[in-house]
Known about the structure:
The protein is α/β, with parallel strands linked by helices and 308 residues long. The protein has helices at residues 12-23, 59-65, 81-86, 88-109, 141-157, 185-194, 214-226, 245-256, 280-286, 294-306, and strands at residues 3-7, 27-32, 49-53, 71-74, 113-119, 162-168, 170-172, 200-202, 208-209, 211-213, 233-237, 243-244, 263-265.
Amino acid sequence: MTRALVTGGAGFIGSHIVEKLVRKGWEVAVLDDLSSGSVGNIGAFLESVEFIEGSITDAGTVRKLMDGVDYVFHEAAVVSVVAALENPEKARLVNVGGTRNVLGAALDAGVKRVVFASSATVYGDADPPLKEDFRPSPLSFYGETKVEGEQLMNEYAGKGLETVSLRYFNVYGPRQEPSSPYSGVITKFIDRMAAGKPPLILGDGNQTRDFVYVGDVADANVLAAEGKEAAGRAFNIGTGLPVTINQLEGLLSEIIGFDGEPEYAEKREGDIYDSYADVSRAEKLLGFKAAVATEDGLRKTVEWQGSL
């Protein structure tokens, strides 16, 4: 039986990867320190996985868990631009040091492939559509740690370990914690609209983002693990379709039935105005194409958030 280790597997994206693997019939181990994840995220299939509460910064724990593993899905990280800025020492320890622990243990254990959760933040404010061969130019410390993570992937690929880096764009969907100060714009909009409050838009609302549904991201991870032409490469994981924040607000208003007007405030310093992916490499070499339409994904997210 194929065995996988998912670091950060009790988190938002990681738990969807775990669910996908369990449904495929794989044997799955989950390592998570629960700093941002929750056992509740994998509660529906907890009996089908081996759950270990621990950190990727603990090299001994990582090495013990790597025995017999075929594939590693490395999701564990300090997971936001703001969180990394607030505690850069922790972000470097986890995102860089922890990643080195994972790769070293995977190489020594003879793991077939490591799939790494990178980020579109590696591009900085480059002009979209963003392509994988653009030179990294991150504007945030978080983005810098993801660039370093990708460099580690390349370093260990040179040692004989197959690695793949997936550059996530704006992932959304069920299990994204709405009460966290680091939540994305979608969860914040839903929370306010559901309470009858106007959503707050920073800037003029015409800035674009590439919103990709979390179930599609989980699919991309499996394709990256199994794809013959994936090893040694980085891939954009998005829809390739720019959506403005004003358009997003309009879609959510219609789904929720909110008839108020949004409020506008000054944009945050350093915010990127336009960001969306060129997804041609993922389509060609992974066979990945986002399947969930934005409106459908938003509806699923609203339904889930309304059940909390």
